[in-house]
Amino acid sequence: xxxxxxxxxxxxxxxxxxxxxxxxxxxxxxxxxxxxxxxxxxxxxxxxxxxxxxxxxxxxxxxxxxxxxxxxxxxxxxxxxxxxxxxxxxxxxxxxxxxxxxxxxx
Length: 106
Hints:
It is a single chain. With 106 residues, this protein is mainly α. It has one domain. Helices cover 75% and strands 0% of the residues. It contains five helices and no strands. It has helices at 11-22, 26-49, 53-69, 73-84, 90-104. Helix 2 packs antiparallel against helix 5 (90-104). The two termini are 26 Å apart.
């Protein structure tokens, strides 16, 4: 399977975690989802620009922590994959970006 065709997370997990935390407030759910996507995108960008192992590991760890805070288990797994792999791995960066693209869709 190519990277583009592999589903890397349960798309409903983020929404379910947010709904459990804030109930049926749709505006707040939308804001929290946007905050997650923005933060995760920032860490993914930092990973893509990392020029040393320390920066890669720091950004991947922050991504994992953020994903954990939001119950985004699939994104946590991708961050783990980044942490256990080679810094700058274009395959894992592509997977993270694909997941972010999917999360960003309302």
